[in-house]
Write a structure and sequence with these properties.
Radius of gyration: 12 Å
Helix content: 55-70%
Shape: elongated
Number of strands: 0
Largest sheet: none
């Protein structure tokens, strides 16, 4: 899964449950590479790291709100 696809799916879930699960600015701050808001995207390694960071953040935010992100997402991401 690509980062932008993940964010799009999380945004749908956010609207359904009324809880913020994603924050792209925070994701970009939490990666090991020098992140910037690249219009063209990131290389595969950077994209994979962004997906990892975003899944962990979404899982934590969902837990704090009393939800299971894996059930909401329909597959194991956290």
């Amino acid at each position: 899964m690509k980062y932008k696809e993940l964010i799009a799916k999380l945004e749908i879930i956010e609207k359904e449950i009324g809880v913020s699960l994603s924050d792209q600015c925070v994701d970009l701050e939490n990666v090991s590479f020098k992140a910037h808001n690249n219009v063209c995207g990131w290389n595969d390694e950077e994209d994979a790291e962004l997906v990892f960071v975003a899944c962990n953040a979404a899982g934590s935010r969902a837990e704090e709100a009393g939800f299971n992100i894996n059930k909401l997402f329909g597959s194991t991401i956290y």
